[in-house]
Amino acid sequence: MILVWLIVVLMVGGLLAWLSQRWSERLPRWIALAVVLIDFILTLWMWGDNLGMADANSPWLIRLERPWIPQFGVSLSFALDGLSLLMLLLTFFLGLLAVLISWREITSRVGFFHFNLLWVLAGITGVFLTMDLFLFYFFWEVMLIPMYFLIGIWGHANRNYAAYKFFLFTQASGLLMLLAILGLYFLHGNATGIYTFGYFGLLDTPMTIQAERLVMFGFLAAFLVKLPVVPFHSWLPDAHSEAPTAGSVILAGLLLKTGAYGLLRFVLPLFPIAAQEFAPWGMLLGVVGILYGAMLAYSQTDLKRLVAYTSVSHMGFVVLGVFAFNAWALQGVVMQMITHGLSTGALFIISGFLYQRLHTRDINRMGGFWAPAPRMGVIALVFVMASLGLPGLGNFIAEFLTLVGAWQANPTLTVLAACGLVLATAYSLWLMQRVFLGPVQPSILLPDLNPREMLIAVPLVLLILWLGLNPQPILNTAQPAINQQLKAYQAPPTAPQVAGQQATLPVASADSLALRKL
């Protein structure tokens, strides 16, 4: 039941935060902080308690199955493996930072703000835990509506336009996924006589290749828009630039990861044949996103839009790795999901700190900030270097593993993707030069980070360093789940093994052995 409580605590806490505003404007902040901290501590306890207990044959650490609407095949099905556990740790850590960031920034309708913030986190948590496709779609919508309010009420000047655009893109693609879920439900029922929305029951559903393609593209529509993948990315820069800082952190660090998680959890295992057919196109879309996002990032003068386009570029590595179909690439995808959440979230936090002080995001009006704010400059330098993939920081491990795995699938596209690292170096150094170095702006008095802001920034720095210097705990946690996802792509033996003849390891198993030596 602990998996259900992770969601219930957030939802109840959101209601309490909303209602408590009538007594005090500070009370919602403390309630939100306490609620997210409770979930974070519980998730850390589960990680420590289950670390190393899963294996390749049974990656699931916790499972909960309860009938809910049995006549329609709907159940309360929740499960936790290494992949979802890592995503929960990222969710609650960034959730804590989002509450702390909003402590001084949000001054109106504080209770309703924290209600929406906690319900967004509840929806994301449900997406990472539920194994019933009916419930999955429910939580997919739960995280959408509160984010619409976060952008539309507490955003900047063009917040209404950005909120509507975000809602239309994600809602339209989500409805296509709903149709695909219903299609899979009826295909499985017609083939087996059992109508169910359960993930484990829907695995290996008998269907024609034409039906598999159609159903898979319904899921792809929702996940590729949420990542986002070019050309479905245009909602992202507007949403990021107009959202409050906490909204940008949640959007970049968590909501985009639900799209990547959906590809790993649903598209690969449920549609193995159609996914392999789509793989060359998926890798091509990933490379286009890497190069296109990097070039657009270099051309921006709005600081938040620049960071938003870096997300488009970095998420291209996720798509590239997912459709490479080997353990190296998928380990890189998991690392990229975590490190991108930390590094890009940190860059949005830095841009929020600057906006609070300058009331502008125009890079042309910045410069020379290192001298008056050296602490901010050092922290910004760490995450700018992480964004360009400096060895010793977590992003390097993610991109290295992804490119090594992608090389085994398509060397040409891997070379093009590697060119994106050169472009990342260009826009990252350009950002650092224009904002923190160069000529000093004499008319601007820029205070350095205060203790609350240092409390937000320093853990991010320590985590990105730890992931770069010691990634093995993360790789070990994710490995059983990744091996499970690749089982559908391991060719079964064609003949009994002859006595004395050495068996050939499947690709995923060989990669897993190599990862143990990493």
TrEMBL record:
Keywords: Membrane, Oxidoreductase, Transmembrane, Transmembrane helix
NADH:quinone oxidoreductase/Mrp antiporter transmembrane domain residues: 131-422
Domain of life: Bacteria
Enzyme class per UniProt: oxidoreductase
Catalytic activity, EC: 1.6.5.11
Keyword hit for Cell membrane: no
Subcellular localization, as worded in the UniProt entry: Endomembrane system; Membrane
Any one Gene Ontology cellular component term annotated for this protein: endomembrane system
GO biological process: ATP synthesis coupled electron transport; electron transport coupled proton transport
Membrane topology: Multi-pass membrane protein
Pfam families noted in UniProt: Proton_antipo_M
A GO molecular-function annotation: ubiquinone binding
Family: Belongs to the complex I subunit 4 family.
Protein name: NADH-quinone oxidoreductase subunit M
Taxonomic placement: Bacteria, Pseudomonadati, Bacteroidota, Cytophagia, Cytophagales
Gene label: nuoM
